[in-house]
Design a protein that fits this description.
Length: 129
């Protein structure tokens, strides 16, 4: 099971994923500065340490610098969090989620049709009908 993480921890994971799943501390700080997040060094180190403790990152020392490597892909994390959300709010009923997206106009007719085609193509590829 993939643990939940805070929004700040997720921000760091997104940076690492954007770097191909591996990033040096300096690269992470550069990304944060580019987006206007001027976090203190100790804050970033604490958040990265938490991600290591939770099993989402591992650290590799390169000389005196740390390289952080993701142990969980973005896709796997998204899938796990989506399943958690689905279970928590819809008791595992994906139809309830889709119904909310449609009735709340959070998904357009075009997006719905694109998803329907995606679903149909996936079922055909697997031999289902």
């Amino acid at each position: 099971m993939i643990p939940s993480i805070s929004d700040s921890e997720l921000e760091l994971m997104k940076i690492i994923w954007s770097e191909g799943g591996r990033a040096m501390y300096a690269t992470i700080m550069d990304h944060l500065a580019e987006t206007g997040n001027c976090w203190q060094k100790n804050t970033v180190i604490t958040l990265l340490s938490r991600l290591v403790e939770k099993g989402l990152l591992k650290t590799n020392k390169i000389g005196r610098r740390n390289e952080y490597t993701s142990l969980v892909s973005r896709t796997d994390y998204q899938a796990a969090q989506t399943q958690t959300f689905l279970n928590k709010f819809y008791e595992g009923d994906a139809r309830g989620l889709v119904s909310t997206l449609i009735s709340g106009e959070m998904i357009s007719a075009e997006e719905y049709e694109e998803l329907r085609r995606f679903w149909a193509a996936g079922r055909e590829d697997s031999g289902e009908k």
